[in-house]
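Entry 14. Structure prediction run on the chain below.
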Amino acid sequence: MEDLTQQVARIYNSRLKVQRICSEMEELAEHGVFLPPNMQGLTDEQIEDLKLKDEWADKCVPSGGSVFKKDEIGRRNGHAPNEKMKEVFKKTVEEAKAQISKKQVQANVCVNMEMVKDALDQLRGAVMIVYPMGLPPHDPIRMEFEDKEDLSGTHAGLEVIEESEAQLWWAAKELKRTNKLSDFVGKNEKTKIVVKIQKKGQGAPSREPVISNEEQKQMMLYYYRKQEELKKLEENDDDSYLNSEWADSHALKRQFHGVKDIKWGPR
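Output returned:
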Protein backbone atom coordinates (compact mmCIF):
# COMPACT_ATOMS: atom_id res chain seq x y z
CA MET A 1 0.00 0.00 0.00
CA GLU A 2 2.95 2.34 0.58
CA ASP A 3 4.00 2.30 -3.08
CA LEU A 4 0.41 2.43 -4.33
CA THR A 5 -0.48 5.41 -2.13
CA GLN A 6 2.57 7.36 -3.32
CA GLN A 7 1.78 6.53 -6.95
CA VAL A 8 -1.85 7.64 -6.63
CA ALA A 9 -0.82 10.87 -4.85
CA ARG A 10 1.75 11.61 -7.57
CA ILE A 11 -0.82 11.19 -10.35
CA TYR A 12 -3.42 13.17 -8.37
CA ASN A 13 -1.08 16.15 -7.83
CA SER A 14 0.20 16.03 -11.42
CA ARG A 15 -3.37 16.15 -12.75
CA LEU A 16 -3.93 19.25 -10.61
CA LYS A 17 -0.78 20.78 -12.13
CA VAL A 18 -2.09 20.14 -15.66
CA GLN A 19 -5.43 21.73 -14.75
CA ARG A 20 -3.71 24.82 -13.28
CA ILE A 21 -1.53 25.26 -16.37
CA CYS A 22 -4.53 24.86 -18.69
CA SER A 23 -6.39 27.54 -16.75
CA GLU A 24 -3.45 29.96 -16.94
CA MET A 25 -2.89 29.19 -20.64
CA GLU A 26 -6.48 30.19 -21.37
CA GLU A 27 -5.73 33.53 -19.68
CA LEU A 28 -2.42 33.80 -21.54
CA ALA A 29 -4.26 33.36 -24.84
CA GLU A 30 -6.68 36.15 -23.91
CA HIS A 31 -4.45 38.75 -22.23
CA GLY A 32 -0.78 37.95 -22.79
CA VAL A 33 2.02 37.31 -20.31
CA PHE A 34 2.06 38.05 -16.57
CA LEU A 35 3.02 41.52 -15.39
CA PRO A 36 5.87 41.88 -12.87
CA PRO A 37 4.61 41.48 -9.28
CA ASN A 38 5.13 45.19 -8.52
CA MET A 39 2.85 46.21 -11.42
CA GLN A 40 -0.04 43.81 -10.90
CA GLY A 41 -3.37 45.36 -9.92
CA LEU A 42 -2.23 48.92 -10.66
CA THR A 43 -3.98 51.29 -13.06
CA ASP A 44 -2.15 52.81 -16.03
CA GLU A 45 -2.01 56.13 -14.16
CA GLN A 46 -0.46 54.55 -11.08
CA ILE A 47 2.14 52.74 -13.19
CA GLU A 48 3.00 56.02 -14.88
CA ASP A 49 3.20 57.94 -11.60
CA LEU A 50 5.46 55.30 -10.06
CA LYS A 51 7.54 55.18 -13.28
CA LEU A 52 7.32 51.41 -13.47
CA LYS A 53 8.24 49.51 -16.63
CA ASP A 54 7.65 45.94 -17.72
CA GLU A 55 11.12 44.88 -18.90
CA TRP A 56 9.78 41.59 -20.26
CA ALA A 57 7.10 43.10 -22.52
CA ASP A 58 9.48 43.54 -25.48
CA LYS A 59 11.26 40.22 -24.91
CA CYS A 60 8.22 37.94 -24.59
CA VAL A 61 6.33 38.67 -27.81
CA PRO A 62 4.04 36.00 -29.30
CA SER A 63 4.72 34.57 -32.77
CA GLY A 64 3.02 36.55 -35.53
CA GLY A 65 2.66 39.65 -33.38
CA SER A 66 0.24 40.55 -30.63
CA VAL A 67 -3.31 41.88 -30.37
CA PHE A 68 -3.99 44.22 -27.47
CA LYS A 69 -6.76 43.10 -25.14
CA LYS A 70 -6.66 44.77 -21.75
CA ASP A 71 -6.77 42.58 -18.66
CA GLU A 72 -9.36 44.20 -16.40
CA ILE A 73 -7.97 42.36 -13.38
CA GLY A 74 -4.53 43.86 -13.99
CA ARG A 75 -2.56 40.59 -13.86
CA ARG A 76 -1.41 40.39 -17.50
CA ASN A 77 0.05 42.96 -19.93
CA GLY A 78 -2.80 42.75 -22.49
CA HIS A 79 -0.59 41.83 -25.50
CA ALA A 80 -2.39 38.64 -26.49
CA PRO A 81 -1.43 36.25 -29.32
CA ASN A 82 -3.25 36.52 -32.65
CA GLU A 83 -6.16 34.24 -33.54
CA LYS A 84 -3.97 31.59 -35.19
CA MET A 85 -1.71 31.24 -32.15
CA LYS A 86 -4.69 31.42 -29.83
CA GLU A 87 -6.13 28.40 -31.64
CA VAL A 88 -2.90 26.48 -30.94
CA PHE A 89 -3.41 27.09 -27.22
CA LYS A 90 -7.10 26.20 -27.36
CA LYS A 91 -6.57 22.91 -29.19
CA THR A 92 -3.65 21.85 -26.96
CA VAL A 93 -5.53 22.67 -23.75
CA GLU A 94 -8.55 20.63 -24.89
CA GLU A 95 -6.33 17.64 -25.74
CA ALA A 96 -4.45 17.83 -22.43
CA LYS A 97 -7.68 18.02 -20.43
CA ALA A 98 -9.13 15.06 -22.33
CA GLN A 99 -5.99 12.99 -21.71
CA ILE A 100 -6.25 13.28 -17.92
CA SER A 101 -10.05 13.41 -17.74
CA LYS A 102 -12.05 11.19 -15.38
CA LYS A 103 -13.96 10.09 -18.47
CA GLN A 104 -10.96 7.92 -19.33
CA VAL A 105 -12.17 5.53 -16.62
CA GLN A 106 -15.50 5.11 -18.43
CA ALA A 107 -13.53 4.28 -21.59
CA ASN A 108 -11.51 1.66 -19.64
CA VAL A 109 -8.31 3.70 -20.09
CA CYS A 110 -5.90 3.69 -17.16
CA VAL A 111 -4.49 7.18 -16.55
CA ASN A 112 -0.89 6.72 -15.46
CA MET A 113 2.02 9.04 -14.78
CA GLU A 114 3.31 8.69 -18.34
CA MET A 115 0.04 10.03 -19.74
CA VAL A 116 0.11 12.99 -17.34
CA LYS A 117 3.72 13.76 -18.31
CA ASP A 118 2.73 13.56 -21.98
CA ALA A 119 -0.04 16.12 -21.34
CA LEU A 120 2.50 18.43 -19.65
CA ASP A 121 4.89 18.04 -22.60
CA GLN A 122 2.11 18.97 -25.03
CA LEU A 123 1.34 22.12 -23.05
CA ARG A 124 5.04 23.01 -22.83
CA GLY A 125 5.39 22.53 -26.58
CA ALA A 126 2.43 24.80 -27.33
CA VAL A 127 3.94 27.58 -25.18
CA MET A 128 7.26 27.24 -27.03
CA ILE A 129 5.47 27.53 -30.39
CA VAL A 130 3.52 30.65 -29.44
CA TYR A 131 6.26 32.22 -27.29
CA PRO A 132 9.60 31.07 -28.82
CA MET A 133 11.48 33.57 -26.63
CA GLY A 134 9.92 32.03 -23.53
CA LEU A 135 7.82 33.49 -20.72
CA PRO A 136 8.91 35.83 -17.91
CA PRO A 137 10.36 34.05 -14.86
CA HIS A 138 7.45 35.34 -12.75
CA ASP A 139 4.77 33.94 -15.08
CA PRO A 140 2.87 31.15 -13.27
CA ILE A 141 2.98 28.89 -16.35
CA ARG A 142 6.78 28.98 -16.49
CA MET A 143 6.95 28.51 -12.72
CA GLU A 144 4.69 25.45 -13.00
CA PHE A 145 6.89 23.92 -15.71
CA GLU A 146 9.99 24.54 -13.58
CA ASP A 147 8.25 23.23 -10.41
CA LYS A 148 8.74 26.60 -8.73
CA GLU A 149 5.04 27.45 -8.29
CA ASP A 150 4.04 29.18 -5.06
CA LEU A 151 0.54 28.03 -4.09
CA SER A 152 0.63 29.27 -0.48
CA GLY A 153 -2.57 31.01 0.56
CA THR A 154 -4.50 29.84 -2.51
CA HIS A 155 -7.36 27.39 -2.96
CA ALA A 156 -5.16 25.43 -5.38
CA GLY A 157 -2.63 24.99 -2.58
CA LEU A 158 -5.28 23.40 -0.37
CA GLU A 159 -6.05 20.81 -3.04
CA VAL A 160 -2.48 19.52 -3.22
CA ILE A 161 -1.75 16.47 -1.04
CA GLU A 162 1.88 15.70 -0.29
CA GLU A 163 2.85 12.08 -0.94
CA SER A 164 3.94 11.65 2.68
CA GLU A 165 0.55 12.95 3.91
CA ALA A 166 -1.66 11.03 1.47
CA GLN A 167 -4.07 8.40 2.71
CA LEU A 168 -6.39 6.16 0.66
CA TRP A 169 -9.91 5.25 1.77
CA TRP A 170 -12.32 2.63 0.49
CA ALA A 171 -15.71 1.50 1.83
CA ALA A 172 -15.28 3.83 4.84
CA LYS A 173 -12.03 2.02 5.66
CA GLU A 174 -8.56 3.53 5.87
CA LEU A 175 -6.21 1.55 3.63
CA LYS A 176 -3.19 1.59 5.91
CA ARG A 177 0.16 1.96 4.19
CA THR A 178 1.66 -0.87 6.23
CA ASN A 179 -0.81 -3.39 4.78
CA LYS A 180 -1.09 -5.00 1.36
CA LEU A 181 -3.98 -4.16 -0.97
CA SER A 182 -4.99 -7.83 -0.96
CA ASP A 183 -5.62 -7.55 2.79
CA PHE A 184 -8.61 -5.32 1.99
CA VAL A 185 -9.98 -6.49 -1.38
CA GLY A 186 -8.73 -10.05 -1.73
CA LYS A 187 -6.37 -11.55 -4.29
CA ASN A 188 -8.59 -11.39 -7.39
CA GLU A 189 -6.64 -9.17 -9.80
CA LYS A 190 -9.80 -8.28 -11.74
CA THR A 191 -11.44 -6.69 -8.70
CA LYS A 192 -12.29 -3.02 -9.31
CA ILE A 193 -12.68 -0.57 -6.43
CA VAL A 194 -13.14 3.21 -6.17
CA VAL A 195 -10.86 4.78 -3.57
CA LYS A 196 -10.62 8.34 -2.31
CA ILE A 197 -7.44 10.20 -1.50
CA GLN A 198 -7.34 12.28 1.65
CA LYS A 199 -4.79 14.04 3.84
CA LYS A 200 -3.73 12.24 6.99
CA GLY A 201 -5.68 13.25 10.07
CA GLN A 202 -8.75 14.52 8.18
CA GLY A 203 -10.78 11.40 8.87
CA ALA A 204 -12.98 9.55 6.41
CA PRO A 205 -13.92 11.50 3.26
CA SER A 206 -17.54 12.42 2.62
CA ARG A 207 -19.70 9.83 0.87
CA GLU A 208 -20.51 10.17 -2.79
CA PRO A 209 -24.08 11.33 -3.49
CA VAL A 210 -26.51 8.54 -4.40
CA ILE A 211 -27.35 10.32 -7.64
CA SER A 212 -25.19 12.59 -9.77
CA ASN A 213 -25.85 16.29 -10.37
CA GLU A 214 -27.02 15.53 -13.90
CA GLU A 215 -29.47 12.88 -12.68
CA GLN A 216 -30.76 15.26 -10.03
CA LYS A 217 -31.39 17.94 -12.68
CA GLN A 218 -33.28 15.44 -14.85
CA MET A 219 -35.44 14.36 -11.89
CA MET A 220 -36.25 17.96 -10.98
CA LEU A 221 -37.17 18.70 -14.59
CA TYR A 222 -39.39 15.59 -14.74
CA TYR A 223 -41.30 16.51 -11.55
CA TYR A 224 -41.67 20.12 -12.67
CA ARG A 225 -43.25 19.03 -15.96
CA LYS A 226 -45.48 16.59 -14.09
CA GLN A 227 -46.62 19.37 -11.76
CA GLU A 228 -47.41 21.63 -14.71
CA GLU A 229 -49.49 18.88 -16.34
CA LEU A 230 -51.47 18.36 -13.12
CA LYS A 231 -52.16 22.10 -12.92
CA LYS A 232 -53.56 22.09 -16.46
CA LEU A 233 -55.75 19.08 -15.67
CA GLU A 234 -57.15 20.82 -12.59
CA GLU A 235 -57.94 23.93 -14.62
CA ASN A 236 -59.85 21.82 -17.16
CA ASP A 237 -61.68 19.71 -14.56
CA ASP A 238 -65.31 20.57 -15.48
CA ASP A 239 -68.24 18.80 -17.24
CA SER A 240 -68.66 21.26 -20.09
CA TYR A 241 -67.25 18.71 -22.53
CA LEU A 242 -70.38 16.54 -21.99
CA ASN A 243 -72.38 18.96 -24.15
CA SER A 244 -70.05 18.38 -27.08
CA GLU A 245 -71.27 16.29 -30.01
CA TRP A 246 -68.34 13.88 -29.76
CA ALA A 247 -69.31 13.09 -26.15
CA ASP A 248 -72.86 11.94 -27.10
CA SER A 249 -72.95 8.14 -26.70
CA HIS A 250 -76.14 7.84 -28.85
CA ALA A 251 -74.91 9.94 -31.79
CA LEU A 252 -73.87 6.94 -33.94
CA LYS A 253 -77.20 5.15 -33.35
CA ARG A 254 -79.29 8.18 -34.40
CA GLN A 255 -77.16 8.63 -37.50
CA PHE A 256 -77.92 5.08 -38.67
CA HIS A 257 -81.66 5.62 -38.07
CA GLY A 258 -81.62 8.86 -40.03
CA VAL A 259 -82.85 10.90 -37.12
CA LYS A 260 -79.75 13.03 -36.75
CA ASP A 261 -80.19 16.81 -36.24
CA ILE A 262 -83.97 16.47 -35.57
CA LYS A 263 -85.21 19.24 -33.31
CA TRP A 264 -88.50 19.07 -31.38
CA GLY A 265 -90.48 22.14 -30.59
CA PRO A 266 -93.58 24.23 -31.58
CA ARG A 267 -93.66 25.83 -34.98
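The first strand starts at residue 66 and ends at 68.
Filed with the rest of this week's runs.
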